[in-house]
Amino acid sequence: MLAIVIVTYFSERVIGDCLRSLQDAGAGDARVLVVDNDSADGTVAAARAALPAVEVVPTGRNAGFAGGVNAGIAAASGCDVLVLNPDIRLAPGAITALRETLAVPGTGIAVPRLTAEDGTVHFSLRRRPTVLRALGEALLGGHRAGRVPALGELVVAAGAYERPGTADWATGAAWLVSRACLDALGPLEERYFLYSEETEYMLRAGEHGFAVRYEPRAHAVHLGGEQSTSSSLWALATANRVRLHRERHGRARALAMRGAVLLNEAIRALTRPGQGGAKHRAALRALVRLPRWPEQPGATEQPGTAEQPGATEQPGATEQPGAAEQPRTADPPGYVCFAAQDWWYHNRAHSDFQLMRALAGRRKVLVVNSIGMRMPAPGTTTHVTRRVLRKLRSVAKFLRQPFPGFHVMSPLPLPFYGSPVLRRVNALLVRAQVRAVCLALGLRRPVMVVTIPTAWDVVRPMPRHALLYNRSDRHSAFPEADAAVIGAMENELLARADRVLYASRTLMAEERELTGERACFLDHGVDVDHFTRVAEPPPDLAAVPGPRVGFFGALDEFVVDVGLLERLAAELPQASLVLIGDATAPMERLTAHPNVRWFGFVPYERIPAYASGFDVAIMPWQDNAWIRHANPIKLKEYLALGLPVVSTDFPELAHYRDRVRVAATPEAFVAAVKAALAEGGPRPAAELRASVLGMSWSSRADRLLELAEGER
After folding, report:
1. For residue 404, which of 441, 370, 371 has the smallest C-alpha distance?
2. Are 15 and 50 a contacting pair, CB within 8 Å?
3. What's residue 320's pLDDT?
4. What share of the chain is helix, strand, coil (3-state, %, to 5)?
């Protein structure tokens, strides 16, 4: 069965000829539905006069093009649907050819060859919209850019219109959609009101495995032209092009599209003075004040007759999503966290990641991956090339949303903090990127949570609800950092932050004179549900002979005592030393021992399964300022797994000595591991786990909200 759906709005002048063309085109016994968007002229009377059997479906309002099409589809249950603009004139046999094309396996949508009345071919086929193509059109124009597939959305090759083929999408003046495609995709998106709704639908069809197939034997004359002469229609089409990019790719990439299309409209507005540039100036004005979704156009705009972007040039506009929306004072703020690690290659158990993930269910969160504390350099930094490459791979991701409400961005930094000039340039560069993303996400006055001190230059002038310094470590003690420069930034944050949050009681006590009552002990949490012991470890770990002494986490030489690990491997040949984590330490020293097994990086999601195969868990830390002010998260994770724990000494362990064997010397460390292998932990596994059940990250996030927003 076939249904023909024609959406009308003040279409009295054109609807008759459209309906009279259907029979010769091959309509046969198809149902013909005119969906009228509350026209106040003689549209309905003209339709009935031209085709007495027409079914009129009144919407009772101006529902827009997508709303009208959806009403027609709903009234044509079980049918394939041919959607036509009322200014279409189908040539003889056009419907027959389209139906034959729709029968080709894999086809979901069939589109005809569109021409003007004089036979000039409309370039109606399109490639998938991209920012690069929008830039190409802005700089080269639609026709010239279209000659290079990567640079233009418009298909302009004459041969493409002379033979059957497929397209990413096509002008929606005439398109036949199979019932299978309609059932799989559901309705058109009505929020666009007019323009881009068929673009979205056809792209969605392709993603569901339905091809958009072009058939030149099916010919239709399309009068069109309203969009090219109407400033308001041009502006609407331009804006919806950007809304489409936002909905498909997220707000940050929509921001990039906005820039490209703004450039296009600005160039045309400047080079076409007077009336010639009026529509482009209207588009520019629309882009500045755009609401999230379009308001309903006035009665002079005719969704039944206006065509999509024409053959001569594409409209261009990128909405700043939500730019016109003003924050309500009652709305809670979002959170922007400048992390000390990188989400894409560091262990995701770090406190800043955990806190923000726990917040994401209640607030919108943006995590800014580490902007570093110095530029990696040979002679002072280990694994320089690897570090640079992994950071570039992270930057290439720019903005992603790993979880609902939880966004991660990787700005491109220039971490030359030793140079005052380059330091200012870096701050401007990173700030511009963060501001752009905040704008795209609607984060206008967020709570700024700073973990890495080099973020101070970036956040200092930024509007914010509050500034929290998450003082998880003394970063000026980092051996590769410029202690004077980083220390000065730390002191600025300590003095200017609204709250300073500590995980180390020792560090908080040492800095009390600088922070006063603004200092708060937040502690670390633990994902108790995640760190639950499993019965069977992964097969590759199960193949390692027991007993197993294990460690997971970053194997950084300035934190982990590699010499102590060597001694442990040498003095416990009957045990396997299992190391899990990315390494900057020289691992050859360790793997030379036959009982050492280094697994390298293991995703956070799989860590509990591997650690469940440990008989004893260890924390072999260096004795330095960094460790003395540390509070390792893995301690609580080990305890949540019920593992016997052996650690070198550091101040925060004073609160865990009833649950952890603590060793002050290498000899004592080896002896403590032997005792743990023989006797187990100081307390039963169930008690060790129970001791950290109240230390969830959710409880830490509750405390963070209280400190930032005064919640009770």
Report:
1. 441
2. yes
3. 30
4. 40, 20, 40
Exposure pattern of 591-623 as b/e (b: 16+ CB <10 Å)?
eeeebbbebeebebeebbbbbbbbbbbbbbbbe
Radius of gyration of the chain (CA): 32
Structure tokens at 24: 């010769």
CB within 8 A of 689, min separation 6: which ones? 528, 639, 640, 641, 642
Alpha helices in 572-632 (DSSP H): 588-591, 607-611, 625-628
Q: In order along the chain (712 residues), what is the average pLDDT of each group of 10 residues?
A: 93 94 93 92 94 91 90 92 95 96 94 92 93 88 90 92 95 94 91 89 94 96 71 85 89 84 82 73 76 60 36 34 36 91 80 90 91 55 66 84 90 76 83 88 92 91 93 72 81 93 91 92 91 92 96 90 96 96 87 96 91 97 88 93 96 93 96 96 94 90 89 40
What element of type H or E holds 237? helix 231-249
Residue 137: closest CA among 299, 264, 300, 310:
264
Q: Which amino acid is at 440?
A: A
pLDDT score at 290: 66
Predicted confidence at residue 203, as pLDDT, reads 95
Backbone angles phi and psi of 166, in degrees to 5? -120, 160
User: At residue 408, what are phi and psi to the nearest 5 degrees?
Assistant: -125, 130
Report which DSSP code applies to 340: S
Q: What is the pLDDT of residue 712?
A: 33
Long-range contacts of 102-106 (CB under 8 A, 24+ apart): 102/176, 102/178, 102/213, 104/211, 104/213, 106/209, 106/210, 106/211
pLDDT value at residue 673: 97
Pick the closest to residue 335 from 430, 446, 431 (CA basis).
446
> Are the C-beta atoms of 361 and 332 separated by less than 8 Å?
no
- Upper half-sphere CA count for residue 466 (Cβ side, 13 Å): 20
Question: Looking at residue 276, what is its pLDDT?
Answer: 63
The pLDDT value recorded for residue 379 is: 47
As given in the structure block, the two tokens for residue 615 are 């008989």
Amino acid at 670: V
Long-range contacts of 601-604 (CB under 8 A, 24+ apart): 601/345, 602/552, 604/347, 604/348, 604/349
Residue 319 structure tokens: 């909405």
- In whole angstroms, give the CA distance from residue 202 to residue 183: 14
Task: Spell out a b/e string for 126-157, using b for 16 or more CB atoms within 10 Å of the CB, else e.
Answer: bbebbbebbbbbbeebbeebbeeeebbbbbbe
Write down the residue that tokens 């570093």 correspond to. 372
Q: Which of 146, 142, 145, 167 is nearest to 155 (CA)?
A: 146
